[in-house]
């Protein structure tokens, strides 16, 4: 019988340390519903005015297959226009989600279907290109995983979207951007999350080989991330591109929009999380 153990990922960003758990992957719907919602980011606090591509939580992780056509319908249930841009994916220009350049904005109550066939496997993300800063800051960003046409043989594949939300002590959104901070590294968020959770966790087989995909969809913060507790760790891809040779490192600096993939071996025995 295989026992299951937890590993922890710890990120250290400007201003302090934060613990990021391994969050659960969501099932793939090929239907995205752009919507406003109220959500509990911090336990016991409701954050109003969040925006997502799902009606009850974070934007889903979209799992597509290299070389297989994808068809993703976006329904706009917001009270403002939007589009979806597929960040990093090579696709036909008219599917790129740029308002007035490649398409008209998706109007309130309208739907739009994107069709493309991913050429490259890797870790990507999606986000709007209308009122972009506010829509992303309030939550409209999600991971796209393009799986290899040929299964590379990992025992588990975990995707984490890393980002802050700029909330006050009561969980309400603060001013998203403060002019005073514009020349000082930008306006940072206040609550660090992975898949919208501040302390998420997921399980992987003891001794198993895990592909850990980290996508930073923050609008401001540059993260210095460390993988701790794994028996072995290698950096295997950056921004959707596989490295020519895996790097023996447990650390990566990841800026807004960037992605890194680690291959890690889970420990065989339980480890202290502290
Ligand atoms: Cu982008």
Brief overview:
The protein has one helix at 132-137; strands spanning 4-5, 8-13, 16-20, 31-39, 47-52, 62-65, 70-76, 85-87, 111-116, 122-127, 142-147, 156-165, 191-194, 204-205, 209-216, 223-228, 232-238, 241-247, 251-254, 259-265. The protein is an all-beta fold.
Structural class of the helix and strand makeup?
A: mainly beta
CATH homologous superfamily designation: Cupredoxins -  blue copper proteins
Strand order of the largest sheet: 13-12-15-20-17-18
Instruction: Count helical runs.
Output: 1
The pLDDT mean sits at 89
**Beta content:** 35-45%
Order of helices and strands: EEEEEEEEEEHEEEEEEEEEE
| Count of structural domains | 1
CATH architecture: Sandwich
Shape from CA axes? globular
Task: Give me the count of strands.
Answer: 20
The distinct bound ligands, ions and cofactors come out as: copper (II) ion
**Radius of gyration over alpha carbons?**
18 Å
The CATH class label is Mainly Beta
* Largest sheet report: 6 strands, mixed
Q: Outline the low-pLDDT stretches.
A: 1-29
Helix fraction by DSSP (H/I, runs of at least 4):
under 10%
């Amino acid at each position: 019988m295989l026992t299951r153990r937890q590993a922890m990922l710890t990120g250290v960003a400007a201003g302090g340390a934060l613990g990021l758990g391994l969050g659960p992957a969501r099932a793939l719907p090929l239907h995205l519903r752009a919507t406003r919602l109220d959500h509990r980011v911090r336990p016991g606090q409701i954050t109003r005015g969040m925006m997502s591509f799902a009606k009850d939580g974070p934007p889903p992780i979209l799992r597509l297959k290299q070389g297989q056509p994808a068809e993703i319908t976006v329904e706009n249930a917001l009270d403002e226009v939007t589009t979806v841009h597929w960040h990093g994916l090579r696709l036909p220009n008219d599917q790129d989600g740029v308002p007035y350049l490649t398409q008209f904005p998706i109007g309130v109550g309208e739907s739009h279907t994107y069709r493309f066939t991913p050429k490259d496997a890797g870790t990507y993300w999606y986000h709007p290109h209308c009122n972009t800063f506010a829509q992303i800051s309030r939550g409209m960003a999600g991971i796209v995983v393009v799986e290899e046409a040929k299964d590379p043989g990992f025992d588990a594949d975990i995707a984490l979207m890393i980002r802050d939300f700029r909330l006050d002590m009561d969980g309400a959104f603060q001013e998203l951007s403060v002019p005073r901070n514009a020349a000082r590294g930008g306006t940072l968020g206040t609550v660090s999350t992975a898949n919208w959770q501040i302390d998420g966790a997921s399980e992987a087989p003891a001794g198993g080989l895990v592909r850990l995909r980290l996508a930073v969809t923050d609008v401001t913060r540059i993260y210095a991330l460390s993988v701790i507790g794994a028996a072995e760790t290698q950096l295997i891809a950056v921004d959707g591109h596989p490295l020519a040779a895996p790097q023996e490192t447990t650390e990566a600096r990841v800026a807004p929009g960037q992605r890194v993939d680690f291959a890690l071996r889970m420990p065989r025995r339980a480890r202290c999380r502290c």
